[in-house]
Sequence to fold (221 residues):
Amino acid sequence: MHRLCLILFGPPGSGKGTQAKLLRQSLGIAHISTGDMLRARVAAGDALGMEAARVMQTGGLVPDAVVNRMVEDRIEEPDCEKGFILDGFPRTVSQARLLSDVLAAKGISPLVVHLKVDYNVIIARLSGRRQCPTCGALYSVTSNAPTVSEVCDYDGSKMVVRDDDRPEVVGERLRAYERQTAPVLDFLKGAGYAFFEVEGADASPQAIARRIEELIQGVRS
Ligand code: AMP
Fold:
């Protein structure tokens, strides 16, 4: 069977990260989050990380050349052999073109899931989002709170609000999405890949993950 590449597409706060974490377990494939990879570089404090931090703090996008290179290298790692989920990539048409060339060269036809979520829900989700700085687990103060308030269920770390979830940055991230990322949808639709729209806010994260699993099974059976 062909290697599975699942592209989780959607605006910030649509649930890409949460779905990717659930699906990587059920599907047994790698999770590639360019946002997590960039945050790791920021934490490492190297030159690339410092440059990325400046862009991320303002809600903009890190240059294509940097992100493309990171993803090209990451896909070659052994844990991607069975397949991989792309979360937060591609975010520009130029990234989508690069990805489509890389996948074509490997004989992989990706499956695209567009997580559709109402704008007001996104704003509410991002303002209530919390993340564990140690293991990366995602929580929501309203719909998916940890057992002990502000403490990670898995490792007891104190939750943090991501720098770019602050209200003054969220607006710019959504503008970057409309301007640079929304056009990627047309590219992916036009590329002839299996493409699905999934309502991303009307059920629990687990129920939405099951819908996506069923879609994948339908395409692959
Ligand atoms: P995320 O965790 O996916 O919301 O990403 C957080 C931030 O990292 C974004 O707001 C961007 O500044 C940067 N970023 C993540 N993925 C990409 C990408 N594919 N292209 C450019 N910038 C990215």
User: Anything to note?
Assistant: Strands lie at 4-9, 30-33, 83-87, 111-116, 129-131, 138-140, 194-199. The two ends are 10 Å apart (CA to CA). Residues 4-118+181-220 form a domain with the Rossmann fold fold (CATH 3.40.50.300). Helices lie at 16-27, 34-44, 47-57, 64-75, 93-106, 119-128, 167-190, 205-220.
